[in-house]
Amino acid sequence: MGMTLAQKILKNHLVSGEMVAGTEIGIKIDQTLTQDATGTMAYLEFEAMGVPRVKTERSVAYIDHNTLQSGFENADDHRFIGSVCKKHGIYFSRPGNGICHQVHLERFGIPGKTLIGSDSHTPTGGGIGMIAIGAGGMDVAVAMGGGTYYITCPKIVKVELTGKLQPWVAAKDVILEVLRRLSVKGGVGKIIEYCGEGVKTLSVPERATITNMGAELGATTSIFPSDETTRQFLKAQGREEDYTPLSADADAVYDEVVEINLSELVPLAACPHSPDNVKSVEEIGKLKIDQVCIGSCTNSSLLDMLKVAHILKGKTVHPDVSLSIAPGSKQVLNMLAENGALAIMIDAGARILESACGPCIGMGQSPNSGGISLRTFNRNFEGRSGTKDGQIYLVSPELAAASALTGYLTDPRELGDMPEFKLPEVFTINDNMVVPPVAEEDMDSVEVLRGPNIKPFPVSGPLMDTIEAKCSLKVGDNITTDHIMPAGAKILPLRSNIPKISEYCFAVCDEKFHDRALELGKSIVVGGSNYGQGSSREHAALAPLYLGVKAVIVKSFARIHMANLINAGILPMTFVNEADYDRIDQMDELVIENVIAQIQAGNTVKVTNKTKGFDFVVSVDLSDRQKEMLIAGGLLNYTREKNQ
Ligand code: MIC
Ligand code: SF4
């Protein structure tokens, strides 16, 4: 039986388990990436493991999230990360060099390799034929130390692309269409593999837009074949030697098939407050807008920026609209400056931001109260922009630029003829903002620089045999990590200080949660389905851990967050009978007796609601390795025990 491309790469890297969907497999990781908002923790964890030099083929640390530096905290983190990298064998992409996923695609991604990154949009690398997966910082630390990375062997969904995009319809519209059909839960436990005749009509940056936002499907990752287009991209990046042709076997068998005729797609937008709330521009109608933000790891490539410049040329941004543009990397910004596109943008009135995440993670450019903002980003969760009642629509750069000129949501097809936008034959290459590590024999000469905001991370104790705790919080469906541990300009600088950042834990849902949890000492959180969707931030597990959360009982989990809970030593449990969710209220007293024996004996656990006087059953559907890890009190304790 033939194999899919994802299966081939996974099989090549298989260290443990068998390629059976739904069972746990361990894979060897060739490359890792971190960014600064998750990086400090990841490197503190790496240090705690005591491995002197990374064992991967390439590990890169990017500084792109916390670049506002409104206090000393960010700069201290950057210095810490830079010095750890120098010592332990990691390449350090300095602030200003660009967004991790964009730069990694340009300069480091290699078809057929495995990459894990402490950022949920790591699947961007799937645009170049990698198996690229978002993970918690601790998993990345383990992989840097040469450890195996474990995932549930995913089902493979084939997205068969036919036809060709119409002028002004974009790669963003392809992924919005996939989201419209599959929803933010539709990809859980799956890899989305793009195939078919339509693939060759898409450039590598367009493919990367699609795989990037596959994260919003909850998918393990997404992948495109590596073909002639990939070769040309790598050649233009001066890396043709990294090219290998890769594709699925003709007789590969897929678990699901989705067919998309690119010729039939129209400009789309994800409406507030979910990436799968997708409507056509026509359906939404003539919406007056206040703000347009172009950039983020989804849509900040040179090609995107050239299209935007073309649309803005000789025009002026509408007087009621603020337009900001953040090119994705130093390479992109440099080339825009060289070819005059940057001058066109400035001339039209765009506010040029540095090559970083910026507004995408609420670092500036929060819209006005109730403001309507069109963004080329990938997430529009409530409050993420920094304005609680901001109305964020996710759109393509073409649609964003056209609308910035008219002041209302505008179908870019109204722009008329579209010229052919081509990637350059040669990109401007200058890796002078990537600092290589020192040679291994010199590592002792490098001092690791720590700032006062960098506090040790909390470590769980071994699993308690009886958990008797109150439900400190009950939340609904689709709770994102932006609810659990919000980001933004005020909170993001605290990423290296768990005691401090935990003051904001769940603040979006309930401002009193922090104090209540601390007062209770230990507690249990109850939630609905797709709990923990969104980012990879392990702070969404570490802050609850610090606040005494022992278990989380929900209808279903998002993949990365569930792994982060296990790594932190917090029990993730799901209702066997979802109706039991309705029978629990906040502050109910829940008791789980003989937890260790119960999880060792099987995959279900009995919980007693002492307040309401009934028992219910929850599922703890974990591998033996995960159970051992929970019993030991999380990944670090488990690794230490194993190494003894
Ligand atoms: C995001 O887009 O939510 C982030 C900020 O990039 C996160 C990582 C983080 O919280 O630091 C992600 O996607 O994993
Ligand atoms: Fe940065 Fe936004 Fe991409 Fe996250 S989604 S990595 S915040 S640009």
Give an overview in words.
The protein is of the alpha/beta class and 644 residues long. It folds into 3 domains: 5-264, Aconitase, domain 3 (2-Layer Sandwich), CATH 3.30.499.10; 268-415, Aconitase, domain 3, CATH 3.30.499; 467-643, Aconitase, domain 4 (Alpha-Beta Barrel). Helix content is 29%, strand content 19%. A 7-stranded mixed beta barrel has the order 21-22-23-24-27-26-25, surrounded by 4 helices. The structure holds alpha-methylisocitric acid and iron/sulfur cluster (SF4). Alpha-methylisocitric acid (MIC) is lined by residues 37-38, 65, 119-121, 134, 361, 487, 534-537.
| The CATH C-level class name of the largest domain | Alpha Beta
Number of discrete helical segments: 21
**Tally of separate domains:** 3
Mean model confidence by pLDDT: 97
* Ligands (ions, cofactors included): alpha-methylisocitric acid, iron/sulfur cluster
Task: Identify the CATH architecture of the largest domain.
Answer: 2-Layer Sandwich
**Extended strand count:** 27
How does the overall form come out from the CA principal axes?
A: globular
CATH superfamily of the largest domain: Aconitase, domain 3
User: Gyration radius, to the nearest Å?
Assistant: 24 Å
